[in-house]
Amino acid sequence: MTNTSRITTISVTLLILALAAPLLLGQPFYINIGSQVLIAAIFAMSLNILVGYGGMTSIGHAAYLGTSAYVVALLTLQHGFSFYSASAVALLVVVIMAAIFGAIALRGTGITFLMITLALGQTMWGVAFRWSDVTGGDNGLPDIKRPDLFGLNLVEPGLFYAVMIALFMVALAGMWIFIHSGLGLSLQGTRDQPRRMGMLGHHVWLVRWIAFIIAGFWAGVAGIAFIGYHGYIHPLSLGLANSAEVLLMVIAGGAGTLLGPVVGATIVVVLKMVVSAYVSRWVLLLGCTFVAIVILLPEGVVPGLERLLKSILPAARDDGEAGS
Amino acid sequence: MLNRRQFALGIAAVAGASSTFKGAAAQTGPIRVGFLTVNSGALAAGGRQLEEGIKLFLKQRDNKIGGRPVELIIADTAGQPANTRTKAQELIERNNVHVIIGPLAAFEALAINDYIQQVGIPTISDSAAAEDLTQRKLNPWFVRAVSSSAQPAHALADYAAKTLKYKKISIVADDFAFGHEISAGFQRVFEENGGKVLQKLWSPLNVADYGSYITQIDRSADAVLANFAGANGLRFIKQYNEYGLSGTIPLLGHMTTIDEGILKNMGDEAKGVVSTGWYSAAIDTPANKEFVAACRAEYKADPGYYTLGAYLSGIFLEEAVKKINGNVEDKAALMKALRNLDLKDTPAGPIKIDEYGNPTMNIYIRKVETVEGRLMNKVIHTYPAVSQFWTYDPKAFLQSPVYAREWAVKN
Q1: Shortest CB distance from B93 goes to which of A27, A36, A130?
Q2: Alpha helices (runs of H) in A157-193, residue ranges in sequence order
Q3: Which end of chain A, C or N, has fewer beta carbons within 10 A?
Q4: How far is A131 from chain B (nearest CA, A)?
């Protein structure tokens, strides 16, 4: 067994254990935390396409989650749509939005790209906050009912968690297929060597633009899960703080790795939701955790641990692909 | 396990074991009170005052309500609606609380509105004032210990039109739901009494400089109404004075524009500001004098909106618990008692809960003056037993849409 396949086995085992943990703890509270971790994980994975595989740091990603949630909320509350048909419309809206915003933001790279995504994200926040006739402004949109699925009422935390696991698995598989596809590989190429990729005949801009849309699509999926879970949407959910938080999840967990954003999302959600019940200065603890990650595992938790594991495991010939 | 954030005094040593009993031993364990507040982020100052209010209340009663010890479980929502829901779930599903006091912000209360109905947990709002919580989004498990947003604004409009004889008023307000609701409520009553709102200027919540808004104020106005929350009133009034307007155009304000929580940081520029609210630390009744003295002894500050909001929530709970003989395990009975409270003598005066879960309470018109060497909101007029619907018929009131930014009087 090579080290790489051992690490894969360890990762898969840990993932299964982590998914089962809330159920083993039994209380609905932990099952709900599990659902929230998975929603955050899908959201972080979507940003990872840009940050990790595309080398494009976006700090306006919450706009896609929020817009999708707002569309579902508005259509179900005010226009009599079912949750599922509203979700389909929401995904369409988010894809169109990502196509437009991507076309604007991709005029720049690096810091310019970051600033444009920030500006676009804050524009969406401004719309949600100020257009109060439609969005409810600062009061948000409450009372969006969780849908039924095959006659089962998803209000039950365990059932909702099961649906979230299924959705997460689909997202994870989708992500794996994407990064190993020709498109995903050329995206990673444009991240590392944009000029060479251009020379080789790849349309760098087009590859990035499509990646931007795919990232927006998955953030929209996370948004639908978000509104399904919370039943409430507020402008804060598509604001800068949320965009920064998801970026931290990606960076802390390990940008450009399949499971990095999942680990990052787990760390942030558990610290925010569970540890805060025991430690009053939990914001400080969250900050210290990030500092510790940056110092000890600067590449992120997942690649960092992988490096440590490889140095611990007996040296076998490693002929598998490395890490990413 | 780490230090649990359970503020448990007295006999609450049972606390650790109690969560495993799940209230099976009715009447013997403590009353578990979940307290949703904000300890981190922009709203933390108000959150701290809320916590002071409830802690003072429990300290005065040796941590007992209706003969039963109280276990207060404080949860920090960080002022984010998504967290608020999780914290509410934590309190209900993990700590098995009997009642929730909180949360702070209106959007937080709206975020958990469906959840508290779904699980059926009595909830006492100690701060969230959003009109619709007791109007168009009714929740049988919800009762409010503070006024609705516009409840004091209606009264101020009446006072401005009839007593102060103002005809033209300019409004400057925070650009969020609370600011919109109080401004629209004022405009409605003021214009129905022959007044005219010349303009409504909306400043963002986090604006650093009010200069550009103050210079836009129509100088022909008889008065300016400033509707702010948090520390914004403090900064606005300071700048209003610096621009030389204090002496020329009188300033009116909402309760939170010049709340006791920030009044202590103001100087002479605040003198003469006429404001409206359901409370003032200067109310001259034995009940309030005793409360203010206790608050000053404990925290060396006058109580304001948040402190009294939490303290009143405590009084609500105590009265309801007494009425049901301490049997808080019967949540429906507890809620029924809360919804039918009729208190004769609170620090804020008499309070009666209306059929929508909102208090009918006195509204005080206050004026900042120096009393006992410090600035206080001296009561200059009292509107007794004011309803959230003012003098309107509740049914007709609820027909029209909720007060909003672009609210206009329908003729």
Answers
A1: A27
A2: 157-180, 182-192
A3: N
A4: 10
Amino acid at the residue A198:
G
Query: What kind and span of H or E run contains A104?
Result: helix A83-105
Q: Which residues pair with A83 in a beta bridge?
A: none
Distances in whole angstroms, Cα of residue B284 to Cα of each of A223, B105, B288, B292: 53, 30, 7, 11
B151-277 fold: Rossmann fold (3.40.50)
Domains of chain A from N-terminus onward: 32-312 (1.10.3470)
Distance from CA of B403 to the nearest CA of A (A): 11
With H, G, I as helix, E, B as strand and everything else as coil, classify residue B27. Answer: coil
Alpha-carbon distance of B366 to B285, in angstroms, equals 15
Residues within 8 A of B (CB atoms), A 251-310 only? 272-273, 276-280, 282-283
Domain spans of chain B? 6-147+285-360, 151-277
Which of A137, A278, A280 is nearest residue B39 as measured by Cβ atoms? A280
Q: What is d(CA A178, CA A131) in angstroms, rounded to the nearest whole number? A: 37
Q: Which of A140, A279, A282 sits opposite B107 (nearest CB)?
A: A140
Is the pTM higher than 0.90? The answer reads no
**Which residue is closest to B117 within chain A, CA to CA?**
A143
Cβ(B282)–Cβ(B366) below 8 Å: yes
| Tokens (6 digits) for A45 | 């994975």
Tell me which CATH code domain B6-147+285-360 carries.
3.40.50.2300
> Which residues in chain A have Cβ-Cβ distances shorter than 8 Å to B227?
none
Per-residue H/E/C for A6-52: HHHHHHHHHHHHHHHHHHHHCCHHHHHHHHHHHHHHHHHHHHHHHHH
Kindly report the number of other CB atoms within 10 A of residue B350's CB atom.
15
Contact at CB, B110 and A133, closer than 8 angstroms: no
Is B162 an 8 Å CB contact of chain A? no
Q: Do residues A44 and A264 touch, judged by C-beta distance below 8 A?
A: yes
- Cβ distance A257 to A72 under 8 Å? no
Chain A residue numbers with beta carbons less than 8 Å from the beta carbon of B82 are 226, 230, 237
For residues A176-191, one letter each, b for 16 or more C-beta atoms within 10 angstroms of the residue's C-beta and e for the rest, the string is eebbeeeebebbbbbb
Count Cβ atoms below 10 Å from residue B287 Cβ, excluding itself.
14
Residues of B in contact with A34 (CB under 8 A): none
For chain A, the 3-state helix, strand and coil shares in percent, each to the nearest 5, are 75, 0, 20
Q: How far is B401 from chain A (nearest CA, A)?
A: 10
As a whole number of angstroms, the distance between CA B82 and CA B110 comes to 11
C-alpha distances (whole Å) from A278 to each of A270, A274, A291, B61 are 12, 8, 21, 26
Q: Mark which residues 39-78 of B lie under 8 Å from A by CB.
A: 39-40, 75-76, 78
Question: Do A222 and A67 meet the contact criterion of CB atoms below 8 Å apart?
Answer: no
